[in-house]
Amino acid sequence: MLADMSSPVLSIAQMRDWEEATWAGGQTQTEVIRRVGLSLAQIALRLTQTQDLILILAGKGHNGEDARMAREHLSGRRVELLDIVDPQADLARLLAQLAQRPALVIDGLFGIGLDRPLSAGWVKLVESLNEAKVRVLAVDVPSGLDADSGQPQGAAVEAAITLTVGAPKQGLMTESAWPYVGRLEVAGEVGLKPGPPASSLYCTESGDFRGFPPTRKVATHKGSYGHLAIIAGSPGYHGAAVLAARGAQRAQPGLITLHTLDAVYHPVAAQLQAVMVAQWQPAVKLAASYTAVLLGPGLAAVEFTDQMKILARSFWRDSALPLIVDASALDWLPLDPVVRNTIRVLTPHPGEAARLLRLTIAQVQANRVNAVREISRRFGNAWVVLKGHQTLIGRGTGEVFVNLSGNPHLAQGGSGDLLSGYIAGWLAQPAMRSDVLNTLRFAVWQHGAVADQLQAARPNWTVEDLAEALGSQMP
Prior knowledge:
By secondary structure, this protein is of the alpha/beta class. It has 2 domains: 10-198, Rossmann fold (3-Layer(aba) Sandwich), CATH 3.40.50; 222-466, 3-Layer(aba) Sandwich (UDP-N-acetylmuramoyl-L-alanine:D-glutamate ligase), CATH 3.40.1190.20. It contains 15 helices and 17 strands. The radius of gyration is 24 Å and the shape is elongated.
């Protein structure tokens, strides 16, 4: 079921149709521009401090009008407005303003209507802006970027944040666009009516999770919330097992048992209190009380590789339990059918996805949605969480969701282990399995949103800090 707040990812043609339906319904362009300007100003105020200089670059189209409208809401800031029509004539004025080192530049030069390469004068102006290395907030799309293909039209503004209007444009989801888009945010409530066109690709919004996860009943006990088994950790990688367990704890399943190799049992057990820790041997059988299994974190140096592969394949084919597979264990899975209506979740990063599909990383990144669907189809229509910038969640059929929370500082060892544990901790709970897609989306969003919260508080946070705060960000 789609959440009410989720934004569809649209083509330029779909966006134009939506706008035309809005004007036909009686809404005015002036009112939409007013709302976009207010949304821009709110972000600009968040990014700056009192008396900071904000430079607004306004072209002659609607993006320029949006940017100009933000000006009246920027109280407490010094604001300079440059209306740029002739890039060659206006370049000197731009350079003079950039020399003052504005705290923020609002880019309202070009929008989705740009349908041809930029002239030499515009290329020079855009390159001069990029060379200044100032923080840029782009309106709808970074100027010069094709909103359908994600390719620069000769040059494109390198934004720190892009506030896309109404709904995200499909070009902003491509790897080629990421260096220009920066962090993508959506101004959804700008008065476009009726609702947007349907799509097969949606962006997760924080508002999707209001009232989720459901409130626990007063009269309850740990047996109501499942028992997660984690099989993780090997020499040199025992920290991954600990982080996966801590991630699972933040989802608060009733019980967690971590099975780890004898060689790392003592350092793992010494770091965990509420989590039960057991020594894994090939002959060990997992308890019948388990309600989900996580397999893979920190198993790169497994001394029982053949036996572990047999275990992974057996679980994959035959177990009725939810199975979450991460890291090295992804390479052990068979292309066999699974038990009907069972939950299978794969959490590859792009390199692991490339191995699963026998492609290059570049081929995976060139069409990440297709990679999600192909991995799912090969592995029993499993759910796939394709990690990385703009993490994708989906499977072979149905909607695929893009996660926009998170930041580059998640690129630390152990971040993925923490996420897989957090996902598994939720799916071990019977009540959280009625809507697997929403549960996965929530876990991924929460992981990124907490990273954003940490980054706003201090720049040198660690994965251990993330483990401590995971689950604390409210929708």
